[in-house]
Write a structure and sequence with these properties.
Layout (H helix, E strand, L loop, with lengths): L8 E7 L2 E7 L8 H15 L6 E6 L11 H6 L3 H20 L3 E6 L3 E2 L1 H7 L3 E5 L4 E2 L13 H17 L8 H7 L4 E3 L2 H16 L3 H11 L6 H15 L3 H11 L1
Parallel strand pairs: 2-3, 3-4, 4-6, 5-7, 6-8
Antiparallel strand pairs: 1-2
Helix pairs in contact: 1-3, 3-9, 4-5
Length: about 260
C-alpha cells in the first residue's frame, strides 16, 4: 500500500525494542520539506525513547526506496532563502540520524536517487534488494550533491563519490553499492531481505543499549562540525537551484 497524500506520510510502529519508521510519497517516495522536518523530529524523539534500542528505516511499497527531493518543490523555489530552507531539510535529517543514540538499520528495497542516497548513507547498516540501484543525478539538473556528500563520502570514499556524481545519468547496481561499503547485505528478493532484517534487528535490540549508544557515537566520530557544514552546503545549493542553467534544466525535465 502506498500513500496518495501530497505531503507524504510518516508512520512509526514499535515492536519490542525495535522502532520501524516508514515514509511514503506518491512521487517515488520523494521528500517535501514538511516531511523532512517531521522525519528529523521523529528520529530525535526515538533517540530519547528509553524503550527503543534499534530503529529500522523503510519506505512504502516495493518499488523506489527514495526519489530524493520533491521535484515540484525544487521547481517552485524562487529566492535564496527558500532554497536554503529547502536543502536544509536534508541537512536536518542527516544530522538527526548522525546524532541519534540508536543504531539505524536501513531497508532499501528499490531505486534510490539523490537525497535518497544521502539518507541511506546516514544509516548505520543496510539491507538492500538486488533492485536497489543508486544514482546521484544532481549535476544533470544543474545542482550538485553538496549537502549529502559528507555522509556519502564517509560510507563509500571520495573516489566512488566522484565516479557516481560525475556520471549523473548512470545507475550503479546494488552490488556496486555493497562493494563500495554503502550496502551491508544484498538479497535476491524482498521476501528474503525482510526475513533476514527482522532477525538481525531483533538480535541487535537484545544487546546492551548503553553499549550500542556508546559504539554508535564512536562510529560517527569526527562529524560534529556537520551542523554548520551541511547548513552552509544547503545555502550554496539553494543559490545553484536559482541559476538560469538549473531553471532551464528543470523545465526540460518537467516537460
Amino acid at each position: 500500500m502506498t500513500t496518495d497524500r501530497p505531503n507524504g506520510s510518516l508512520y512509526t510502529s514499535i515492536n519490542g525494542k525495535v522502532a520501524t519508521v516508514e515514509f511514503g510519497h506518491p512521487a517515488g517516495n520523494s521528500f517535501v520539506l514538511e516531511m523532512l522536518d517531521r522525519f528529523a523530529d521523529e528520529i530525535l524523539k526515538l533517540s530519547n525513547n528509553g524503550a527503543v534500542s534499534v530503529i529500522v528505516l523503510k519506505s512504502e511499497g516495493d518499488r523506489a526506496f527514495c526519489g530524493g527531493a520533491s521535484f515540484d518543490e525544487l521547481v517552485s523555489i524562487s529566492n535564496l532563502e527558500e532554497g536554503k530552507v529547502f536543502f536544509s531539510g536534508f541537512a536536518k535529517v542527516i544530522n538527526a540520524m548522525r546524532k541519534c543514540k540508536k543504531v539505524i538499520v536501513g531497508r532499501v528495497q528499490g531505486k534510490t536517487v539523490g537525497g535518497g542516497v544521502g539518507l541511506a548513507s546516514a544509516c548505520d547498516y543496510i539491507f538492500a534488494s538486488e533492485a536497489a540501484s543508486i544514482r546521484l543525478s544532481e549535476l544533470s539538473i544543474g545542482i550538485a550533491p553538496l549537502v549529502i556528500a559528507p555522509a556519502v563520502v564517509r560510507k563509500i570514499g571520495i573516489a566512488a563519490l566522484s565516479e557516481m556524481s560525475l556520471s549523473p545519468t548512470e545507475w550503479k547496481s546494488a552490488y556496486w553499492a555493497q562493494e563500495k561499503g554503502l550496502f551491508s547485505k544484498v538479497f535476491d528478493t524482498i521476501k528474503e531481505l525482510d526475513k533476514e532484517l527482522e532477525f538481525f534487528a531483533s538480535q541487535l535490540s537484545g544487546y546492551n543499549p548503553d553499549a550500542l549508544a556508546e559504539w554508535k557515537a564512536v562510529l560517527w566520530e569526527g562529524t560534529s562540525h556537520w551542523d554548520a557544514l551541511l547548513t552552509e552546503r544547503a545555502a550554496i545549493t539553494g543559490k545553484l537551484v536559482l541559476s538560469e542553467f538549473t531553471k532551464n534544466a528543470l523545465s526540460k525535465f518537467k516537460k
